[in-house]
Amino acid sequence: MKLSIVVPIYNEVENVDQLVTAITNALASVSYEYEIVAVDDGSTDGTRDKLARLVDANHRLRVIELRRNYGQTAAMSAGIEHAAGEVIVTIDGDLQNDPADIPALVAKIDEGYDLVHGWRKDRQDPWLSRRFPSLLANRLIAAVTKFPCHDLGCTLKAMRREIAADLRLYGEMHRFIPILASWHGARCTEIVTRHHPRRCGKSKYGIMRTFAVLLDLITVVYLTRYSLKPMRLFGGLGAAAAALGLACGLATLLMKLVADFDITGNPLLYGALFGIMIGLQFTLMGMTAEMNTRTHYESQERRPYAISRLRGFSRLTQPASRLANTELAA
Ligand code: UDP
Ligand code: MG
Fewest beta carbons less than 10 Å away: which of 167, 232, 279, 319? Predict the structure, then answer.
């Protein structure tokens, strides 16, 4: 199977018929095999029944029904995990993205990229509540993460299955897929994609999402820069706070000795107390985070690296890891 198209769907009863038709039409002339993985994210408006009917009539359609509404990110991960294709395309289920862009995304992957994200250059959403906040957020994210990207919010993306399988998505993290993937070493690129106004159904988000995305940005920066070495961050902050506290303490003491300035009446005393306490807190937080990192990687048997290819290993008569063990034992 070459391609899996993963679609998160929540209460889109008026859209699902057209969506499946639009995808089928868009891919009518491609030569490769594909499947549509629709994830029903706990819809309550009849979407579920409609999808169940469509599945019987379309051998390319698969449906994953989630027990309740878990959110778009969880729906996308469920779809990605059950997808059989070598390439995975994610797309919105409300026809705002245009399935006609899918072949171009796949062509980019065939050129050698690991991930291609769409840019809704001519985005058809309200300006004040959606486009403007999204513009600011995208600029900020690009500046902070140094990842050159115009439109992280665009669900229309294509990625190789290995890249998708490496992503562990929680909360609302699907927006940061390109950044997380590039952190795992994926070669990313962007293409301009079409965008249409929503014709049926309602958007599931409002302006508050922008603030949520900004909080997620903190998580992403922490994950990509410090999750493997949290002590560098917390220990550094702790050392800075403690140094400031010590300096304040010394100043308090000197002022007492030299000018007989009252210690308890000296505002710098508070600086000394807080600085040292906060410094200690940060350092302890760093130690806890270090332990967490180890638990995280070891409990899931995850590695702090991703191998893109092994060469020459098939020549070995026994698996490499066992060989390493015998060498150690010898
Ligand atoms: N969606 C979902 N679960 C949710 C919210 C949204 O699966 O909890 C789906 C929704 O059905 C749509 C896609 O995610 O297919 C994008 O949602 P929406 O169109 O509301 O977002 P917008 O385009 O307004 O940013
Ligand atoms: Mg939409």
Answer: 319
